[in-house]
Amino acid sequence: xxxxxxxxxxxxxLKAQLSDVIHGCMQSVLGMPEDKRAHRFVPLxxxxxxYPGGRTPAYTVIEINMMQGRSADTQKALIKELFTKIESDVxxxxxxxxxxxxEQPAHCWGFRGMTxxxxxxxxxxxxx
Length: 128
Known about the structure:
Elements: E1 2-7, H1 8-11, H2 15-30, E2 39-44, E3 60-67, H3 72-90, E4 97-104, E5 110-111, E6 114-115
């Protein structure tokens, strides 16, 4: 699951485009299937979203939650691809994008009535 935070006036008009770009990066770098898109947008009032100096109101935070297993090189490739594609396709400069990958062991995930370590029919590999 991916959670995207930003100031609502900047985030709302870009939701669909940003979702497409993020999912495209997940597909190209991690091999995620087309139908494996789980994005949650959290548009905030400006007074509820403090961000670091040197950033603009377009500052956007992307939290990627996923099962453990991807190598450090794969994770770095994903982050770099996100910076590149978000800038070229959405127009948000890398200085205004923060990406955090949060990994949890498979047994900490629950979906389709089972835990992640019990599932045997994923359409993608976690070990990339």
